[in-house]
Amino acid sequence: MPKRTDIKKILIIGSGPIVIGQACEFDYSGTQACKALREEGYKVVLVNSNPATIMTDPEVADKTYIEPITIEMVTKIIARERPEALLPTLGGQTGLNTAVSLAEKGVLKEYGVELIGAKLEAIKKAEDRSLFKSAMKRIGIAVPESGYARSYDDAMKVVDEIGFPAIIRPSFTLGGSGGNAAYNIEEYKEYIKIALEASPVHEVLVERSVLGWKEYELEVMRDLKDNVVIVCSIENFDPMGVHTGDSITVAPAQTLTDVEYQIMRDAAIRIIREIGVETGGSNIQFSINPENGEMLAIEMNPRVSRSSALASKATGFPIAKIAAKLAVGYTLDEIPNDITRYTPACFEPTIDYCVVKIPRFNFEKFPDTDQTLTIHMKSVGEVMAIGRTFKEAIGKAIRSLESGRCGFESLWPSGSDKWSAEQRTEFLREKLMIPNPDRLWHIADAMRFGLSLDDIYKWTHIDHWFLYNIKQILDMEARIKQHCKGERPFAPTPEGNNEFSMDREMLIEAKQYGYSDKYLAYLCNVEEKTIRKYRQKEAIRPVFKHVDTCGAEFKAFTPYLYSTYETSCEAEPTQKKKIIILGSGPNRIGQGIEFDYCCVHGVFALKELGYETIMINCNPETVSTDYDTSDRLYFEPLTLEDVLEIVDKEKPEGVIVQFGGQTPLKLAVPLEKEGVRILGTSPESIDIAEDRERFAALINQLKLRQPDNGCARSAAEAKVIASRIGYPVLLRPSYVLGGRAMRIVYDEMGVEDYITQAVQVSPEHPVLIDRFLEDAIEIDVDAICDGKEVFIGGIMEHIEEAGIHSGDSACSLPPYSIGNDIINELKKQTQIMALALNVVGLINIQYAIKDKMVYVLEVNPRASRTVPFVSKAIGIPMAKIAAKVIAGKKLSELNISMNMKLKHVAVKEAVFPFIKFKGVDTVLGPEMKSTGEVMGLDTDFGRAYAKSQMAADCSLPLTGTVFISVRDKDKKSMIPISKKLIHMGLKIVATQGTAKVLSENNVSVTPVLKATEGRPNIVDHIKNNEIQLVINTTEGKAAQEASYSIRRTALVHRVPYFTTVAGAVAATKAIEALKNGSLDVKPIQEYY
User: Fold this and answer.
1) In angstroms, rounded to a whole number, what is the distance separating the alpha carbons of residues 253 and 285?
2) Closest CA to 316 of 718, 633, 48
3) 305 CB neighbour count, 10 Å cutoff
4) Are 181 and 165 in contact (CB under 8 A)?
5) CA 259, chain centre distance (Å)
6) Distance, CA of 920 to CA of 902 (rounded, Å)
7) What are the CA-CA distances from residue 280 to residues 87, 938, 1020 (Å)?
8) What pLDDT, on a 0 to 100 scale, did the predictor assign at position 764?
């Protein structure tokens, strides 16, 4: 069928900020869809509040609204743009839920907007668990027995019939939020309350547990002529009970017989037809009982999902692009496959390799939370690796994780060598029975310890096939250790010096088993370089193979490659001038999608200059690993070993390391030592900026000011330095990103505590000690330098004061409270430092301003996480310009306006994952905890800030009651805030101390009890929806613990809360702006 001509303009709803369960895979799918629809001549209108995405770049859609994704705002966009159609399946759960609400509230009908891709009825059938259950009954597909509860009493009746263990799943939530498994009635009562609150429709499904069953997913596509293809089968390494986003997954499925696969395939086709997803991709999850092969359908996502991104990258089949084309009327047989250019999209992909995905966790950021993996998702990112076998792929995936492990390292705790055999077995049993992020390594320890595969299976329910493969990897390890101990690995050479040697066949086999040089070096007790040199001398080198969707049956036109140890190489490097860009690896807190954004812009810019671009990355969620972003894509781990092999094969002009965050920066010096040319700022300059002592010397030489500081190499030295500087001090290890293990301490006890618990201090790992500037204003500056000139892109003022990590603070561009003289001083200092460090490319500098004095906090001669935000705010693509400068262009040639005056204000607000982690406090500090960000754009600060709060799902109230409880030094600043709030018609309640200060200053306030002072107290009031806004600041550990329940309850009940005075001031300004008139929407194309 030809494409539809009755539609001219299509609205796409994005997925908003990056949160756990909804990450950059939706940037990748949205970007693909915008491109595909515009290719077909449609006008595309996009709404998404996340500035760190490629899809919100002004070039991607015709009209781009960086506005909050709320019903009210999207309605305004529809009224303004009048699209004929809405494509709801590309914005994750956010996009889907918003589309459903717009349809149910009659907005789509009123403006004549049609849902394409998936109709309302189909979305509801798949998403509403009771409708899904009855649909499965109609087509005779079994689902777990279950019952619905819309209240606590319902839930008690349901569990009587189902029994324990019971799985609790709230309807219409994302990443399994609010879900749990209850093993007894006590747990059940607690979890039901959480789940009912988590579901936007207050509905929970309670189902029979299939914990321990095998879990599979099929990625299915359907068109309007009812053609259906299965793009990819995915098998979870972890059994049911671990959310698929937190499970190691393998594609294609490895342990199904052909008959079982055909049964599952047929079931998937019947399901997509019954649910009625007319076009596009869906993801269907099944579970199989390993005892008897019984198969159940678990759930279906009627949209592009996290697994779709994985399936796309695993097969080379662009699911989102094809879904967009199917939605406008094409059929699968009419769409060509871009990779082969010969086969149509109705050819199911065939893959002749194995793909393994391992999730990346960030539990070290939340030390108070439980690390057990359950049915609600906790991972913040993932890596994917491709190999010819499961063994090779899992080895490559482990070293892609950047967790400091390069193989199956042992995780026995220190002192365990003194344990008895019983104690060891008990330790392993606990680690294997309770799913946790390290279970894979504990399995390896259990095998070395001599536990049988049957025992390990009994405790983990991980299929024997996987366990057997890991066992083979470990048998190989034992042989290598034996070889390196038994035969001397050093053969004397004629000159009399010892050279490393190893059995050639054994080394080839080890590499085919996925062993990294680094892990082999560890086993043989030599340097990694020794292994690499020996391997190269023996001509044991990887070859590169194509991901071509067709098992090499047809020629592949888009070079998408992976390495393996075989004989024939398919890389065919060209003779063009080319540049390699290193990606940023798996998402994590502190290094997220913003860095991928910069990498992609780097690729675009270098293409414009006529270079061939080569991307190396291992993150399947991103735009950078899309098959058509760069000219050549190597889906490989970002380790020295893997990058050197690609450099050797491609022979580029150089490598760019400054776009991908800390991951490629760490490789800069080692690569340079191996003779690789690093483009842009030299590794030497990067080191001066990163090494605190060299940096302090530079600042003194430039006669700039920085907070007093010192560098301690022992615990005793730390105390001496801290008392010389004067408390409070900020402590941190050197060379970190995202504020890992940073802490502000107020006395010597605090220093002692930090050094014994948080970090090991040693001469190799010094601790940095800085004077902490209390109540200073923090500023971020992003600039580009070409070695001669400096272009200052943006000066951002943080809303939260210094001491809160810059990634967690809201910020405003342009600054809203500092004068022009200070702005000019910041510009001057930025120029001085950029030129002194010989920066070529991007530079980010953080300043603090206290008593009108400017202090330099840190300099990062690389892309920072604010680059996308600044680029969107000023309408100049900073990363693109930086890439051209790195390639040798001068700023003066790139005609950018140096002194622009913004007529609008942009506010960035951080988005946090606290709700996912039980027992975690929401107070912010120097360690970064946010997973994503949103942007509010408007004509003044108050309105822009209000939009940023709406977008972060924390809409400010215009009526109701505000609760205030602040530390002593903040009490005075609450007086003007309270008066303003009362003037605007809100009521104030406060705890005793705060209330006393307020009423003494003529503020009418009602005192309430603290959580420790009896009932009904403030926590009860929040639970009863009697409080609409919380302002709560604390000092010291005791006060923080006492008021924890206030903040946690506000979080769970979605009451906006502010834990800093600056945040409360900004919120008051925003409420004032909202009171003075409603918010309007405007596409970013009209702001510039």
Assistant:
1) 13
2) 633
3) 27
4) yes
5) 38
6) 39
7) 11, 36, 47
8) 64
